[in-house]
Design a protein that fits this description.
homodimer, 202 residues, mainly alpha, Arc Repressor Mutant, subunit A, Tetracycline Repressor, domain 2, 2 domains, 10 helices, DNA-binding, transcription regulation (chains A, B), DNA binding (chains A, B)
Chain lengths: 202, 202
DNA sequence: CTGATTTTACAGCGATCGCTAAAGAAAGTG
DNA sequence: CACTTTCTTTAGCGATCGCTGTAAAATCAG
């Protein structure tokens, strides 16, 4: 069943096509990327796209999911791999500065910028990305709560405010990157941002 | 010439129509707002809109210009009216927290969020708002340079990095507001953000 | 009043949107 | 070979996009 290969084989590389779709959505957003743009970049015709990926919405979801496990994976990785919570957030911001300005792909973060302007009929796409960002804030807060429980943050530290703050800084860095900020500028922003981290309870 | 009033008078309030257009563009962005949406909210027909405002692009420009002198005026006001530069930036962030979550209008900042996803044919609109944001960063930097010259910042303060940092924080706060953050949360973010301000040269 | 001027509502332009029916082309199966 | 399955291309669907031609309606000047 799973490996039966009957019928005419697909004549294009599905993964390569997905990468092209990712680059387009990343740069121009969901509504700013048309099926015509996608098929041109993928080198296929509309029916092939629909047969391989469903519809535009399903393709976008697949793109975003793949983005989270590749380009966007540095976030949770940085928080998880650094033992010291403060070092984890610092590393996350540093890596954001590098990733958001990588000339190998569009600037900024796809999840942050790909669906900010929603017309009524694409409100669900906007809501999807919003949920991912909200989950990210929650992830920050959980990590900060964990840090406090382990004594890496003062007992009275405002973990909720810190979580929203770090999310805002990351989103702001993404926007700045799209507006043309350099890697160096964003690295310095990342270091400035870490001044908000409270002193440990001594 | 200027006050000649010949012909049929306009049957709608141009200012009120402009406010309606502002609210729509603010919430749904440039591309997410159609002429049909606009005429419905304004209570007029397409020819009336085109006669009064030119085309969609001109209407949007007028909306953004008006936004800058009303809703968005708190930024330069805060920097200009506080004598102490640090107090000026702190006040700007505090007022952003309030304005971006004001239930009387859409969340966040129109200049920041109304044209982030640009399809090729609207790249000029995107570029227009981008220029306004870049000018804002430059304004921050000028104010910081002024602060350093007057001894309110250390001689070795990185004014460029601070300017990009504050711009990123403001943009992040706008995004967080659109994602549902509360006024209180953003106020606490504003206070945390001020920790990046360098100590005065003693 | 008549005539000139401007705005109005109605209808629809060409272009593009996301998407798909139809039929031919390329593979495996017998 | 014939048959089934799947992908391909061609062509175009209905809907919406920004925008406008046309003519009636409403005000002015004389």
């Amino acid at each position: 069943m799973t490996t039966t290969k009957r019928g005419r084989p697909r004549s294009f590389d599905r993964e390569a096509a997905l990468v092209q779709a990712t680059l387009l959505f990343w740069q121009h957003g969901y509504e700013g990327t048309s099926i015509s743009d996608l098929t041109a970049a993928m080198g296929i015709s509309p029916p092939s796209l629909y047969a391989a990926f469903g519809d535009k919405r399903a393709l976008f979801t697949e793109v975003v999911d793949r983005y989270g496990t590749t380009f966007g994976a540095f976030m949770e990785d940085a928080l998880a791999r650094e033992r010291d919570p403060r070092a984890g957030f610092a590393r996350m911001l540093e890596e954001a500065a590098v990733s958001y300005t990588d000339p190998g792909h569009p600037a900024g973060c796809l999840v942050i910028s790909a669906a900010t302007n929603y017309s009524p009929q694409t409100a669900d796409v906007e809501q999807d990305l919003r949920a991912r960002r909200t989950a990210n804030v929650g992830s920050f807060e959980a990590r900060l709560e964990d840090a406090r429980a382990r004594g890496a943050l003062p007992e009275d530290a405002d973990t909720r405010a810190l979580a929203v703050y770090f999310a805002a800084v990351v989103q702001g860095m993404s926007q700045q990157a799209r507006d043309g900020a350099s890697t160096q500028e964003l690295r310095r922003v990342a270091r400035l941002a870490m001044n908000a981290w409270p002193e440990p309870p001594a």
